[in-house]
Q: What sequence folds into this?
């Protein structure tokens, strides 16, 4: 065994970028790279240049020799009467090959094509991802809880001609009709001038169709019927350049158009394999459960690609964590012998609130626990450690983003001290820094907050925004770039969009977004997307989305809307704004309140001051408003919401 200290020292700055060889060597390459990092065209970094590999081969085929009869995935359906399914590596291999054959033979999907999925938490989702990876096609999963319109928008942006969906799935005891959203997605894409030609529909209960939405002749096909024609087919994995895109993951930003974050094959897979190994501490004999949705980056990296690259057993759960009672999660952990547990603060808050003593009733033992996606309050952290983890598990609080591929800030489990409410230092090979607005470094221990940035590129960083390279440079690199002509990566720090403070011990505390993004229960929502959805209601003249503190979800959305001249506020208008948001984005974005106000606080140049509205909403007080064009509106709004609350 290599001495641990020595190994970690290899990631100190003097060894950058060579240190990332340690991660790349966890993978099986068809041909090795000649250049670890090509930074000649900042900020479009290229990792492991010259290398070739296939991501599906790395997550499936290469484990067959030693682990073919062990579980790759364990899927727990929501209804407790349904049997848990273990899918061995051999079976996963078979399923992935057959579905790859459907995509290629039946749909004509070729290397480089985009395929959009709108799939819930069912094993067909990782099968579909790996099938695309096998072909070198680029998958783009849209979170199942998003609306059909949001899915259609993303499919049009990615110009996907194939949409893979499911008839229904279970959530909180209901069989949700999901296929209907595919019809909406096709219609929305059409409005955007893009055609989805084929909709592949998996059936939750093969042989019986659980949706009310009619199958459209020539467009919609049941996957189980298509698979019957490909039974036993083997499709050779396509050897891809390390730099070939593996998938797109859409996220929200400062405009209404979502950003398709493009992740690479070699750099991404190496990074998630490495961080899964050292920060999730996953060993092949662990049963690892990341209780998150694969529709978000956490699930891509730490349910599918990272754990499967390491050949471990990854648990997937279909439904709601507290269904049918708040002991469900712990019951699953006990039954499956889960040793590593990973979830988001929003789930932890809910389980703590609904069943504070439930963990004590179940005999599971975690050696390791992870939290991700939002700041975790110290008292919630303590419950996670003491009650859920029974004081036995090491906890890592991992800070990162859709754009990053894998963890950026975390402690090394059991090797670096835990600190409730803080994500710890930068992870191996990541050198974070806090800058003030002028680009001066904010020193650790100064107590001053600033913008957290990463000084160096890393293999998991996304390559670009699909189809919007200028937006990529502008959003993430322009703010602190020292010289746009420079070819030196030192001049191109990555701007994360989060506020943070660094303590004297080097640990970071993440304060939250500094841009127009609201993080609701760990889901990123763009204020512009929410506002555009509200403006689809005919009566609305202006809209502003603001975050409010919420006990369970961390943050929730409140919408402020003003009406076109001559119109009167009504409950009906408020309801229709909420419905428009459901329709355009999805139920997760549903506002906590919709306030119809006479006007918005504005600057003299007419810009709506969301910050002022958020202060009224959260604190009732806004400080000095003398620079507003209409300071009197602040009192109006305050009275309005106080009289209603
Ligand atoms: O504000 C940070 C918050 O979530 C944002 C990223 O959201 P998303 O791209 O959806 O990815 C979430 C899962 C990786 C960040 O900009 N965030 C993420 N992790 C943490 C966090 N805030 C505090 N602590 C964390 N551990």
A:
């Amino acid at each position: 065994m290599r001495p641990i200290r020595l190994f970690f020292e290899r990631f100190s700055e003097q060894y950058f970028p060579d240190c990332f060889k340690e991660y790349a060597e966890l993978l099986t390459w068809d041909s090795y790279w000649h250049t670890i990092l090509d930074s000649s065209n900042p900020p479009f970094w290229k990792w492991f240049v010259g290398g070739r590999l296939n991501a599906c081969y790395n997550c499936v085929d290469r484990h067959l020799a030693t682990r073919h009869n062990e579980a790759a995935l364990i899927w727990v359906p929501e209804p407790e009467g349904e049997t848990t399914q273990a899918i061995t590596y051999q079976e996963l291999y078979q399923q992935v090959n057959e579905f790859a054959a459907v995509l290629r033979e039946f749909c004509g999907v070729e290397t480089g094509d985009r395929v959009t999925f709108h799939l819930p938490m069912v094993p067909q989702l990782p099968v579909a991802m790996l099938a695309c990876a096998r072909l070198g096609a680029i998958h783009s999963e849209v979170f199942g809880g998003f609306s059909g319109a949001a899915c259609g928008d993303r499919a049009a942006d990615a110009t996907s001609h194939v949409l893979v969906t499911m008839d229904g799935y279970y959530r909180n005891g209901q069989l949700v009709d999901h296929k209907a959203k595919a019809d909406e997605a096709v219609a929305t894409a059409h409005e955007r001038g893009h055609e989805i030609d084929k909709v592949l529909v998996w059936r939750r209960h093969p042989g019986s169709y659980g949706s009310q939405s009619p199958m459209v002749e020539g467009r919609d096909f049941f996957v189980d019927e298509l698979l019957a024609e490909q039974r036993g087919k083997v499709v050779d994995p396509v050897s891809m350049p390390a730099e070939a895109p593996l998938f797109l993951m859409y996220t929200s930003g400062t405009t209404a158009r979502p950003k398709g974050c493009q992740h690479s094959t070699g750099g991404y897979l190496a990074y998630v394999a490495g961080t899964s190994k050292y920060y999730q501490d996953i060993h092949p004999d662990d049963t690892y459960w990341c209780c998150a949705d694969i529709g978000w980056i956490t699930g891509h990296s730490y349910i599918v690609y990272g754990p499967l690259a390491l050949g471990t057993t990854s648990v997937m759960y279909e439904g709601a964590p507290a269904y049918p009672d708040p002991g469900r999660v712990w019951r699953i952990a006990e039954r499956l012998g889960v040793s590593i547990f990973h979830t988001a603060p929003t789930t932890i808050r809910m389980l703590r609130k609904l069943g504070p003593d439930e963990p004590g009733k179940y005999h599971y033992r975690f050696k390791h626990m992870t939290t991700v996606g939002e700041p975790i309050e110290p008292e919630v952290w303590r419950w996670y450690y003491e009650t859920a983890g029974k004081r036995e598990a090491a906890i890592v609080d991992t800070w990162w983003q859709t754009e990053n591929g894998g963890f950026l800030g975390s402690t090394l489990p059991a090797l670096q001290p835990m600190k409730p409410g803080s994500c710890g230092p930068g992870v191996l090979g990541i050198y974070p820094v806090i800058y003030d607005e002028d680009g001066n470094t904010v020193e650790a221990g100064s107590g001053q907050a600033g913008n957290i940035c990463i000084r160096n590129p890393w293999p998991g960083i996304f390559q670009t925004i699909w189809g919007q390279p200028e937006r990529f440079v502008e959003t993430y690199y322009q703010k602190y770039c020292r010289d746009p002509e420079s070819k030196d990566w030192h001049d191109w720090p990555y701007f994360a969009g989060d506020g943070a403070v660094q303590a004297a011990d080097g640990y970071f505390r993440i304060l939250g977004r500094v841009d127009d993004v609201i993080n609701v229960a760990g889901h990123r929502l763009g204020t512009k997307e929410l506002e555009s959805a509200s403006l689809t209601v005919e009566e609305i003249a202006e809209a502003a989305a603001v975050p409010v503190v919420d006990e369970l979800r961390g943050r929730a959305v409140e919408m402020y809307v003003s009406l076109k001249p001559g119109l009167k506020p009504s409950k009906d208008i408020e309801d229709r704004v909420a419905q428009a948001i459901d329709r355009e984005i999805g139920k997760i974005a549903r506002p906590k309140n919709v306030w119809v106000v006479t006007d918005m606080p504005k600057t003299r140049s007419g810009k709506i001051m969301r910050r002022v509205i958020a202060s009224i909403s959260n604190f009732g007080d806004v400080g000095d408003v003398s620079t507003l064009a209409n300071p009197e509106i602040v009192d109006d709004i305050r009275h309005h919401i106080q009289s209603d609350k």
User: Anything to note?
Assistant: The two ends are 62 Å apart (CA to CA).
